[in-house]
Amino acid sequence: MSERVPAPGDLALIEALVNTLDIEAGGDELDTEDGRARFGLTAHQVPPARELRESLRATLLAHAGHPAHQDVTPLGELLARAPLLVAVDARDGSARLTPADDEPLLSRVASAVAGALVAGTWPRLKACEAPTCHWAYYDRSPAGRGRWCSMAVCGARAKMRTYRARQTGDTA
Questions:
Q1: Which residues, at least 6 apart from 14, have a Cβ–Cβ distance to it below 8 Å?
Q2: Looking at residue 44, what is its pLDDT?
Q3: In contact, 77 and 138? CB cutoff 8 Å
């Protein structure tokens, strides 16, 4: 839905996972073999991937100052199950967290969150405030106050609703 540039670095994985569900149309890419293949998932791994996706969405809504869209397992509880390793580069001594195994989606997401925390980019990954959308996007606005995944779609709809409410005297 979004015309925005994808999130930087490993945050693109989280953005892509959250955006596998089109709330408005009701389509879920994790229902398809191609959609699962993007994340290295088998059909039996889909239920925990969906749980992770919705916990991420709730967190991204919180980044934007909005309540969770539904009751979810807290993201911290899910990420606590992710095996990570500290990888140290022998050449320069730099260190980073990496997934203990390249396959599990949970470990890759945990590694992405940890990297984004260090880089200071984690709070900029948000979910669109539109209740029929909640699409993930990376907020590149200077003040970090973006509200919608797409100004042309969700932003325009919200502004039109506000305009119409003013015209009819409603305070919506």
A1: 7, 56, 109, 112, 113, 125, 136
A2: 95
A3: no
Task: Provide the b/e sequence for 137-161 (b: ≥16 CB within 10 Å).
Answer: bbbeeeeeebbbbbeebbbeebeee
What is the Cβ-side half-sphere exposure of residue 47, based on CA atoms within 13 angstroms?
1
pLDDT in tens, 41-50: 999 999 999 9
- List own/partner pairs for 143-148 with CB under 8 A and 24 or more apart: 146/64, 147/64
pTM confidence score: 0.83
DSSP string, 25-86: TTEEGGGSHHHHHTTT--GGGHHHHHHHHHHHHHHHHHHTT---SS----HHHHHTT--EEE
Residue 54: the pLDDT is 97
Structure tokens at 33: 């073999």
pLDDT of residue 61: 95
Residues in the chain with pLDDT values less than 50: 1-2, 158
